[in-house]
């Protein structure tokens, strides 16, 4: 009898595993406009689309309570889901929040966490409408589901990019990753010497981006006001490289972006230098930026150029051209996905 080959999850990687597990499901409901594979699922409600997205955050994998204030954690858990709703060009309406709680938490600690949840709900005008609560033996677990709505003609899929469209990104990239590096460094120094007092002065921007990110609803409003409907859109959660590749794959296109157009904040550059790291590497592969990456028709060049804080990185190309990063000296490097991969290696 031939031995049955047992595969490890690492062989497939996170996205390979999701494909493998879900590809055998045939959609059975006419109302399911889009299932697995985008920032959110899209459900047809006749006159509009509803979008649904969910994220699971585990202590020790996604957050470290040594340096993460619970209030920030509650805020971030909601915001990262809203970011996925915005990435469909939709407006978030409701969230549910589910918790697995280990014995070490007091009521006061959970109140802190929920203070963050409440702040995010207020800031983004969404309602907390349910959830679930359970004991956990392996640390804190938070799962948030967000629901939103979008006009049918305005929905932005990852698959909506076309050749020649401009590739744009909001804000700047790599800051959250450098914030994480600072917090990890201070944690290690503290572990070696309990007398050591972390000094986090001068790192405000990168720390805030990591601990308390915001979702870019302001960018959607600016696009709307300019009369721009994005072709494809995704939020940058895994790193520019990985997330742009998602758009290319879903849209069956190639892309060409220029390294000197990738926005990196001055503070991010400085912190990267402290770690002897190329700032561009943080921007390409860092992740957790929650900026919006989108394409717009070439004819919208003037309009999109006029929106403050939106950067044009390059353009979509034919699929056979591949996904390319053009460097200052004119070389083209193939983009690779090295972003966050829950089952692979981070760096
Ligand atoms: P994002 O980074 O935008 O949150 P993910 O990379 O987590 O998206 O997920 C990619 C796609 O795979 C999404 O459509 C998500 O709903 C789907 N997905 C992830 N895990 C599972 C799973 N275990 N079963 C079914 N679908 C999943
Ligand atoms: Mg996303």
Set out the fold topology.
Layout: H1 9-22, E1 32-34, E2 41-44, E3 49-58, H2 70-86, E4 91-101, H3 107-123, E5 127-135, E6 141-150, E7 166-170, H4 175-192, H5 204-211, H6 217-225, E8 233-235, H7 240-251, E9 253-258, H8 266-274, H9 279-285, E10 292-296, H10 301-305, E11 310-318, E12 323-326, E13 332-334
Parallel strand pairs: 4-5, 9-12
Antiparallel strand pairs: 1-2, 2-3, 3-6, 4-6, 7-10, 7-11, 8-10, 9-11, 12-13
Helix pairs in contact: 2-3, 4-5, 4-8
Bound molecules: adenosine-5'-diphosphate and magnesium ion.
Give an overview in words.
The chain is α+β, with helices and mostly antiparallel strands and 347 residues long. It has 2 domains: 31-154, PurM-like, N-terminal domain (60s Ribosomal Protein L30, Chain: A, 2-Layer Sandwich), CATH 3.30.1330; 158-334, Phosphoribosyl-aminoimidazole Synthetase, Chain A, domain 2 (Alpha-Beta Complex). The protein has 10 helices and 13 strands. It has helices at 9-22, 70-86, 107-123, 175-192, 204-211, 217-225, 240-251, 266-274, 279-285, 301-305, and strands at 32-34, 41-44, 49-58, 91-101, 127-135, 141-150, 166-170, 233-235, 253-258, 292-296, 310-318, 323-326, 332-334. The protein is globular. The model has no long low-confidence stretch (mean pLDDT 94). The protein binds adenosine-5'-diphosphate and magnesium ion. Adenosine-5'-diphosphate binds at residues 18, 22, 36-39, 55, 84, 237.
Give the helices and strands as they follow along the chain: HEEEHEHEEEHHHEHEHHEHEEE
| Largest beta sheet: strand ordering | 8-10-7-11-9-12-13
CATH class of the largest domain: Alpha Beta
Report helical residue fraction. Answer: 25-40%
On the 0 to 100 scale, the average pLDDT is 94
